[in-house]
From TrEMBL:
Pfam families from the UniProt entry: Choline_transpo
Gene encoding the protein: LOC109092262
Protein name as catalogued: Choline transporter-like protein
Subcellular location: Cell membrane; Mitochondrion outer membrane
Reaction(s) catalysed by this chain's protein: choline(out) + n H(+)(in) = choline(in) + n H(+)(out); ethanolamine(out) + n H(+)(in) = ethanolamine(in) + n H(+)(out)
Species for this entry: Cyprinus carpio (Common carp)
Membrane topology: Multi-pass membrane protein
Length: 740
């Protein structure tokens, strides 16, 4: 009498097992709408998101990101403008960029104009006025309308021309001094170490130009990298699209082969992953060995520092050594996992075979990731465009710049009325120049909130699209599992019907689950933002606390993703609200916790190897193509600033595509697993309560039972007896035994 409550306690802790229901035949069709309040909230949030987008598009101007801006706030090189043929920005006095004010106001306090090309020779204004040819050459670097017949002091007083020209090069559409460093560390500009400014009657060292260029680079360094990357995308976008199409074809072919030859393809996948990573180790070693003895190859990454030209890192041995060590660690970890999980692999392969049968009967599920990919692309594009327009929706702000002491220095000014104001009378050398983009209106005050709202809705919408795909596939595969006679009892168009049920009844539940995940993700973004802002000032205690918070929220995000995924399966089957479905899914998994670790996670590991294989194949091919190492198509290889830009884009895109296709298998396995656990609780395999699982899937259970008895003898394991040995209890439950 005292033993029965003790045996039922473990089960009651995670809810009561499902009871036998003769009317249950899979996903319930007579269902109602769930989480209506969340559905209304999501619709209102979307309307607000559209309003923010319209407001941003009406106020923003992406040209502020693409084109450099002169002192009048005009865009250099803008198509359809008077400056269309003048794409480069020229500084009258680059030495003023060495001022500390550059770091505070992000603007060089000197006149800046748009020019057609950078100066390629040294020349002073005083000498240029002596010859007609030099005068015409110098005039293109002066303001429009300058009278070159005037004397040099008069021209320089009005700020119409620079006092000196130095050989310059185009760097991110800006003319910066063409600096070179000779042996011994001597800095030169155009083979000269000093320059004579005739008007100022002083010598200028080339090192002064170096310091000014560095300070001006502080303003444009991040933008320089962004512009170079943007140029690489414009040169290679069609090849990137081709690489993504190839990745899609490889993924589709791999999935089709996996459907037909699941066992063979899994072993091929495992062997190929080991071979691909092994080739990566070999390639890194060959590059490491080839750089031995070359000048500069022994420089460490720490000594090299942060460089915008990332190809420099590939010219030092330490980079390839680091790559080789990382790949060796990955290879060893994968091999050890394969050795220790060798018995579980057979069970997981059998489960993948069963998933292949399900996908074979629901072939349309293979093409559903295309819809998910299209919707995610739409969400990402809307977020990116809105972010660009929000970041460029500021007005040009003009400031007073001067060389002598002036009480109006750095005050806001208006170029149209500046010459008639009293500022020019009190400060004759003062100029009203463009400083930055900003604003003090109500819209500009709340601009940071609009950016935050844009990021939050991006997470919410992206998670919603992912959730829609998960609940749609779960409903389709649940229809397959709970069909007693396969394929006769499988309903027509299972994917389409499941999608319709999800949108009609469960938009609120999907929005609820997505909202919870989006809140955690936005908190992680805020923690990263705080980490960057407080990096220089934080003490060790604050740093430790922030690291703990980041780790905790990372774990929380992973757990919520896992819980949401299984909750959506229960939503697809029973049509209940999100909280109830999440509770039922969690309790069902906890009642079968050993099988979760044995079957589900090992299968996820095998599918991850499949993604890794596709990414490795596409990544290696793109590396050889964009580095020009394929002789047949060497002429077609585009000229790039950073060849790693298209390679990483193709690799990242290939992973997303492979993840999209393999997510069908992963969702199929998870759905079959939950249905499998429910089937064991509802039925006992007798003629009155037959299993809905196939004989092969029932055999997997037997294999799993034997594996548990062999490998997990010390772990309490829930086991089900063979079909003919299961005695039927009065309440219709399968008799469960716990063995040690």
């Amino acid at each position: 009498m005292q033993m029965e409550p003790e045996e039922k306690n473990p089960e009651s802790k995670y809810g009561e097992p499902r009871k036998f229901d003769p009317t249950f035949k899979g996903p319930i069709y007579n269902r109602g709408c769930t989480d209506i309040l969340c559905c209304i909230l999501f619709i209102l949030a979307l309307l607000g998101y559209f309003a923010v987008g319209i407001l941003a598009w009406s106020q923003g101007d992406p040209r502020k990101v693409i084109y450099p801006t002169d002192s009048k706030g005009q865009f250099c090189g803008q198509v359809g403008s008077p400056l269309e043929k003048k794409p480069l920005l020229f500084y009258f006095n680059i030495l003023k960029c060495a001022s500390p004010l550059v770091l505070l106001e992000f603007q060089c306090p000197t006149t800046q104009i748009c020019v057609e090309r950078c100066p390629n020779k040294f020349m002073t204004l005083v000498k240029a006025l002596l010859k007609e040819d030099d005068r015409e050459y110098y005039k293109q670097f002066c303001k429009e309308g300058v009278d070159m017949t005037k004397r040099a002091p008069e021209i320089l007083k009005d700020g119409l021309c620079p006092s000196i020209l130095t050989p310059s090069k185009n760097f991110t559409r800006r003319c910066l001094p063409a600096l070179e460093t000779l042996k011994g560390g001597v800095v030169v500009v155009g083979n000269k170490t000093t320059f004579r400014d005739d008007y100022a009657e002083k010598n200028i060292n080339a090192t002064d130009f170096l310091e000014a260029s560095k300070k001006s680079n502080v303003v444009v360094e991040a933008r320089a990298v962004a512009m170079r990357i943007f140029e690489d995308y414009t040169q290679s976008w069609h090849w990137i699209l081709l690489g993504l199409v190839i990745a899609m074809l490889v993924s589709l072919i791999f999935i089709l082969l996996l459907r037909c030859l699941a066992g063979v393809m899994v072993w091929v996948m495992i062997i190929m992953v080991v071979i691909v990573i092994g080739y990566g180790i070999f390639h890194c070693y060959m590059q490491y060995a080839s750089l031995k003895g070359q000048a500069g190859s022994d420089v460490t990454i720490k000594d090299l520092g942060l460089q915008t030209d990332f190809s420099v890192y590939l010219q030092i041995r330490q980079t390839w050594l680091a790559f080789m060590i990382i790949l060796c660690i990955v290879e060893v970890v994968i091999i050890l996992l394969l050795i220790f999980l060798r018995k579980r692999l057979l069970i997981a392969i059998a489960l993948i075979k069963e998933a292949s049968k399900a996908i074979g009967h629901v072939m349309s599920s293979l093409f559903y990731p295309l819809l998910t990919f299209a919707l995610l692309s739409l969400v990402i594009a809307y977020w990116a465009i809105t972010a660009v327009f929000l970041s460029t929706s500021s007005d040009p702000v003009y400031k007073v710049f001067n060389t002598t002491e002036c009480m109006y220095s750095r005050d806001t000014c208006e170029p149209e009325t500046f010459n008639s104001s009293n500022i020019t009378a009190e400060c004759p050398d003062a100029e009203c120049l463009f400083a930055f983009y900003g604003g003090e209106t109500l819209y500009h005050k709340y601009l940071i909130l609009f950016q935050f709202y844009n990021v939050f809705l991006f997470f919410w919408c992206a998670n919603f699209v992912t959730a829609l795909g998960q609940v749609t596939l779960a409903g389709a595969f649940a229809s397959y599992y709970w069909a007693f006679k396969k394929p006769e009892d499988i309903p027509a168009f299972p994917v389409f019907n499941s999608l319709g049920r999800a949108l009609r009844y469960h938009t609120g539940s999907l929005a609820f689950g997505s909202l919870i995940l989006a809140i955690v993700q936005i908190i992680r973004v805020l923690l990263e933002y705080l980490d960057q802002k407080l990096k220089g000032a934080q003490n060790k205690c604050a740093k430790f606390l922030l690291s703990c918070l980041k780790c905790c929220f990372w774990c929380l995000e992973k757990f919520i993703k896992f819980l949401n995924r299984n909750a959506y399966i229960m939503v697809a089957i029973y049509g209940k609200n999100f909280c109830t479905s999440a509770k039922d899914a969690f309790f069902l998994l906890m009642r079968n916790i050993v099988r979760v670790a044995v079957l589900d996670k090992v299968t996820d590991f095998l599918l991850f190897l499949g993604k890794l294989l596709i990414v490795g194949i596409v990544g290696i091919c793109s590396f050889f193509f964009f580095t020009g190492k394929i002789k047949i198509v060497e002429d077609a290889t585009p000229t790039l600033n950073y060849y790693w830009v298209p390679i990483l884009t193709v690799v990242f895109g290939a992973y997303l595509i492979a993840h999209g296709f393999f997510s069908v298998y992963a969702m199929c396995v998870d759905t079959l697993f939950l249905c499998f656990c429910e089937d064991l609780e509802r039925n006992d395999g007798s003629s009155d309560k037959p299993f809905f699982m196939s004989p092969e899937l029932h055999q997997i259970l037997s294999i799993e039972k034997n594996a548990e008895e062999t490998d997990c003898a010390e772990v309490p394991v829930i086991q089900v007896q063979a079909e003919e040995e299961v005695p039927l209890q009065e309440n219709g439950e399968v008799q469960l035994k716990e063995q040690g």
